[in-house]
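User: Predict the complex.
Assistant: Input components as received:
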Amino acid sequence: MRIGLFVTCLVDTLSPQVGRATVAVLERLGHEVVFPAAQTCCGQMHLNSGYRGEADRLAARWERVFDGFDVVVAPSSSCVGTLRETYGVEKALELSELLVGRLGVEDVGARFEQSVVYHPTCHSLRVTHVGDAPLRLLRNVRGLELRELSRAEECCGFGGTFSVKNADTSVAMCDDKCAAVEASGAAVCTAVDGSCLMQIGGRLARRGSLPRTLHLAEILAAT
Amino acid sequence: MTGFPEAARVELRDAQLRANLRLATDTIRAKRGRAVEELPDWEALRAAGRAIKERTLERLDEHLARFADEAERAGAIVHWAADAAEANAVVAGVAKRHGVAEVVKMKSLTTDEIHLNDALAAEGIHALETDFAELILQLDGDWPSHILVPAIHRNRREIRDLFARTIAPGLASDDPAALAEASRRFLRERFLGARLGVSGANFGVAETGTLCIVESEGNGRMCTTLPGVLVTILGIEKLVPTFADLEVMLQLLPRSSTGERMNPYTSLWTGATEGQELHVVLLDNGRTDVLRDRVGRQALHCIRCSACLNVCPVYSRTGGHAYGSVYPGPIGAILTPQLVGIENAPTLPFASSLCGACAPVCPVKIPIPDLLLHLRARAPKKPAERAALAAAGAAFRRPRLYRLGQRLARRGRRALRPWTTTRDLPPATRSFRDWWRSR
């Protein structure tokens, strides 16, 4: 299948390895991945910060950039949520939705020999309703030991510009999430949103904690 | 009003507060979950609740006129109050006419909203709070931090010490039953001597002029029945058109708020009986302005259950005081800015990570995250932020400018405070698009 890749501005700039892993997983499964170079942002940052007009322009621009594609994948449920739930772009899919829901693949042939805890991000739970698709994928990774996360469905405190405007509250929320990750004993915390992982990973590092964060795509790309 | 971020910073230092909140909200959440799960038609009930509220607000003027007519026909005296000052003046006037120096009050957010107690105190009239939690706060000069559990931020040892200092000298036990007994002994005396009661109301029924309160302790029923004179203050959005509508609301409210199938006391009264006097104050105080905004007005659907507070990860960290309003939590973040004017509470719509935990538990299906976004768009912005977002928007529309911005973002990362004050950033590497081009 020919799949458009919307890498998202955050991954493009700050976590490019997540984009590379997304490409690796899909190409390994025999799909053609295309990255339109004109892409930038879906408009979520402006939408969530109260700049609806600019967000509308960016969403319209996104649709022009991805005009020729039937399916567009993004390694982020919050960007997909903005495109699909706010702007009605049905062809936008988050990676695990594409793999499990659309392509019917639960085993991508990955091997990852570490203990992992999965953080279900707010937008994947309550906006894109991804359900247990990421967990199905993780359960099929060879060597991977899945751990339980307490209070898993609670927000990590990122929330886009919330993490800066309300930095103290954001970090108080994140500290509880980090404590839950640490208590799980897992070596790796994973999720389908790079932004939440940047928050959790950034705080774990500052706390001097051992667990590191990896996007689901990075685990699925590992062999 | 102090901005939310600054107020939250102060509250976040209080570890005891956070522990109290965590324990209390976890308990109520679990109870609510069980109470909702056992109803197979819960989603249909929520839809019905929403529909009733929409229908009511669509023709609120007619329902209000009907309510006032029916209440008067049944012997009530109806007052219309445009704002807090007018409502408070009605209560003070009634108190003075009857020559009372103390009124007994049931727990009421509406009277807190208009600062009734302060207004009465200025006229030399004491308003005694008779709800257990409200009494605690009043005795300590504190104020509510939760819609349903006003003293949620206090634990029982703190309450025992307070009672021993004030209404129950020598009280040694912090057992809940002992604390309740101490307040009961103190309050019974005052109830029996009271000549004027003040209440809010959960619902008003337009077709009959009936008022309805739901409560747990029974103090509300004491306030509304023992004194010969009663003043009930009702926000104009609290109406439902028909008596049958109550059937829906009285299922939604207790299950969502206390997690009970039915609350212990539900009182309904219509007009006044011989020898008694009932005043009903219909309060606007900004509600008509909210009604003009077809998206924002959904906040007026709220039936004050507080389910959204109990699931909110922001509220459970900061507590209610950080919101600077009697309406805290997610509902406060969308209601307060509309009632007081968004320029007076510009930070409240941003006091959310948009995690969306609130919307699925709202019994009348208020899409709280959508309303937060709606109000964020209306909120005044600081010039520096406006400029930064405009620059980002311009860059996002021009890929070449965007690439330049990417390089600056990677290089200028140390300047990305307040992120970097508390969190690390991922190590700088070349962008995905540069990698793609080189592959």
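The two ends of chain A are 22 Å apart (CA to CA).
Let me know if you want any component modeled separately.
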